[in-house]
Design goal:
The protein is mainly α. The chain contains four helices and three strands. Strands 2-1-3 form a three-stranded mixed β-sheet, covered by helices on one side.
């Protein structure tokens, strides 16, 4: 894993960091956008303002609407989740997609399928 400031500059807002803790490219390269204990800007829920950004680590995968994630992204995501779960004692049932927090098409069908399979494996 590497923190690549050139990538972060491309995808960040001019006055803040990238909203996600991690960004995974098509080739499986993982970029750290924020420290794990740094508040994110990746998920809002009106019923619990600020909760998810303060109490979770957001992961974003390079993708386009309707596009499946690559095998390299899947392997990188599995590796990242394994590391984060071990470091923070997170059970699989506590891993969520955006659509499980707020009504949205994000993160797309292939991630929904990945999460479903991942949680039962």
């Amino acid at each position: 894993m590497k923190k690549d400031n050139s990538m972060i500059k491309i995808i960040k807002h001019p006055h803040s960091y990238i909203g996600y803790g991690y960004y995974i490219e098509y080739d499986g390269t993982i970029h750290q956008g924020r420290l794990d204990n740094e508040e994110g800007a990746h998920c809002k829920q009106s019923a619990r303002p600020g909760y998810w950004n303060k109490n979770s680590v957001g992961v974003c995968l390079q993708n386009k609407v309707g596009q499946s994630i690559t095998n390299e992204q899947k392997q990188a995501l599995e590796s990242l989740l394994k590391r984060l779960r071990s470091k923070y004692n997170i059970v699989k049932t506590e891993i969520y997609g955006h659509y499980q927090i707020k009504a949205t098409a994000c993160p797309g069908l292939s991630i929904k399928e990945f999460l479903k399979e991942y949680k039962i494996s």
